[in-house]
Amino acid sequence: MKKKTILNNVLLIAGVLILVNLLADRFFLRLDFTADKRFTLSEATRNILGSLKQNITVTAYFSEELPPEFAQLRRDFKEELIEYSNRSNGKVMFDFINPNKDEQTEQQAVQAGVNPILINVREKDQVKQQKAYLGAVLKCGDKKEVIPFIQPGAAMEYSLSTSIKKMTVDYKPKIGFIEGHGETSVNSMMQVMQSLSILYDVEPVNLNSATSDLSNYKTLIIVNPRDTFPPSDLQKLDNFLATGKNIFIAMNRVEGNFQNLSGTVVKTGLESWLDSKGIRVNPNFVIDQNCGSVTVNQQQGYMSFQSNLKFPFLPLITKFAENPSTKGLTSVILQFASSIDYQPRIGGLTFTPLAMTSEKSGVENAPLTFNVNRNWQISDFRSPNLNVAVLLNGKICGSLNSKLILISDGDFAVNGESQQARQLPQDNLNLFVNSVDWLSDDTGLIDLRTKEVKSRPIDQMEDGKKAFLKYLNFLLPILLILGYGFFRWQRRRNQRMNRMNENYI
Description:
This protein folds into 3 domains: 35-167, Glutaredoxin (3-Layer(aba) Sandwich); 173-449, Rossmann fold, CATH 3.40.50.880; 461-496. 32% of the residues lie in helices and 27% in strands. The protein has helices at 2-26, 43-50, 68-87, 103-112, 154-168, 190-196, 231-242, 270-275, 426-440, 446-449, 463-500; strands spanning 56-62, 92-97, 117-123, 126-132, 134-140, 143-147, 174-179, 201-206, 219-223, 246-250, 254-257, 262-265, 279-281, 284-288, 291-300, 303-317, 319-320, 332-333, 340-342, 350-356, 361-365, 368-369, 387-394, 402-407. Helix 6 links the parallel strand 7 and strand 8 (201-206).
């Protein structure tokens, strides 16, 4: 009788497991208990998927038999695609292909735009490098988008949603980069241009041209002007704001020269135009103890060597306001920024500081000479929380609401050209593109670019908490087993005591 009961229980459990697997295969459900909701689709993504009119095919080129972290990435991406398919009522279709299975399939992945990466694999106590494919190709009609490498976490959703949006958008708003006053060339901002081109048609605009029609643009962008703005061009900017449009400005009020170690004031007339709206960009250099480094040559005897020295004129900004343009940012490195003040001159405007220096910051008035070996004192940093990026919102010109975002560093999003090109810090790019997005776009994709994935590295914890978690992980399973054993022992002991009772039936 006892064996039969055990067999029935085993069969019942097996039947329940089979039923659960069949239901899980037919109905997809994912519960997200993460603090940052990294596995929950954003409202922007749901809107994009809900408005799809054409089918999207996703061919995921993923290698198999990979180390656990990459195998988990494959599972996460597959679950993401299942949810995309469900949200789009089947309009998003996907297939997984293993390029490593044969040479022809590998060539197919490379031709599609997915190139392999080298990963370290441990095999028989040896570490070797293996080619792995972790990308995808999306197609909609005759349009194609390639994601050469799938990023884990929130970036996965951003890559998929922006690729789908780029292929399915019927109309792209226009944004204009002002030129004609010595502004930085768009060829020096290729990372910015690549990100902006997903949602916008980006065009150069010359205010001096009689054929330029500013009404075609939703936002105007001014980056690092060096020459003077004539009054007629400034009037055109006023007229543009008066129509309810928006302007983004990244400008240098001062300029630092590493060749002769000098710092000078920059005058273009734009600073006077901003001052007429109440925004004063001071002709000074912001300094901050929280800063970047410069590489300098040092001599010690007959030896010459290079070393990295902290340089307070490169403030590392980590304090940001609660605003879509700065949401999710962690740190932005600036180069020769200036402090920004606000003195109201027009009623009804809202001034919002977007990015501030640390508690230990200050200013150095221009002109000046840099000394990279200077022994900085605490007394040098007595001006905390200086504004380096601000927002002005309201009826700036005319009777319609408009927005103006100003950043007091014209070089923070410039990555250079050809051989001089460098990779921008990710948050520098995010600050620029997020700001333009917020001024120009209403799809909500701005929230995805900086959707925060909270990491809690154990090496950054306090020693006491680290030790507590270590012993908790070690002892908790043992205590649970001992507790369950004690519970079983106590229960059986009570049963024996009850059976010994003469009234026991």
